[in-house]
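Input.
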Amino acid sequence: MVYKKFLSFLVLMFLLLSTTAFLPKSGFDNKELKSNALKGGEELNIEEVYRNLHSDGFGLPKLESFKVALQGFNKLKAQGVVSRNILTLIDFSLSSNIKRLWVIDLDTDTVLIHSLVAHGRNTGEEFANSFSNAAESYKSSLGFYVTGEVYNGKHGKSLRLDGLEKGINDNARNRAVVVHGADYVSDSFIQNNKRLGRSLGCPAVPVEITDDLISAIKDRSCLFIYYPSDSYLHSSKFI
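Output.
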């Protein structure tokens, strides 16, 4: 009888130890697993959106820049900072001699506009490599913006931008960094000068598409200027 009770006790202990061995070691570990799963899901979702983009003959942005842009857009939309599902992505890691601006309708996953775009004169020659938030630096600023009001200025129809990242681009309105058309943003300028023309810091676009582009992105949509800068990517609160 004693032997049977002892044997039953051993079996019970074995079952208890076997069960607890597979439980999370602590609440922290369990939260970490959930966090990693959510991050993985978000990344997969972004890649799925990218694969489903309809370019209608336009080229697509690099997945690398699109991931960063969509992450930030999602946060800004959730916070109510942007009110439209339109994302403008400018990739300043690319040569200024090729089209590096995309306007994407996220409701239909469609590229609406693919265009040349200028960077600031002190940001680089053909390639952008230096950025600033300072007044009169004549440099472009990286990061996330929300589009402001439309107005007519010295470059004709223009669109104000409000930088959303402190110390990175939040001086944009004071610097008069706006979307506007410019005759130095053209294939003919590239042919004559071996590179695109440059602005005083504005993302200037071809004159012939200015009206359509501004109409497409006005009224508090998201504009993002990308460059693979480690300091920016680690300091941005939207990535």
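Residues 2-7, 16-40 have pLDDT under 50 and may be disordered.
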